[in-house]
Write a structure and sequence with these properties.
This protein has 74 residues and is an alpha+beta fold. It is 32% helix and 18% strand. A hairpin with a 2-residue loop joins strand 2 and strand 3.
């Protein structure tokens, strides 16, 4: 599957993402702490997320078709 953007593939059990109960596989991350990921490659987006510090605020878009595609890959 080739889709542009940075998507949640899996929510790791007992992680901060799992504990907040808001992210699901297939969600597309649009921005991190107010910084847009649109146009960034995967590695730049990952670096932005990893360097964000203790507080992480994500803007995400939920897509049923992407969630189904991620489940089908598993």
């Amino acid at each position: 599957m080739k889709a542009k953007g940075i998507f949640i593939r899996e929510v790791v059990p007992d992680s901060p993402a799992a504990r907040c109960e808001k992210l699901v596989p297939g969600d597309r991350i649009l921005a991190v702490n107010g910084v847009s990921l649109l146009g960034l490659d995967y590695y730049s987006g990952r670096e932005l997320i990893q360097s964000s510090g203790d507080r992480l605020r994500l803007l995400v878009a939920r897509s049923d078709w992407m969630a189904k595609a991620v489940q089908a890959e598993s």
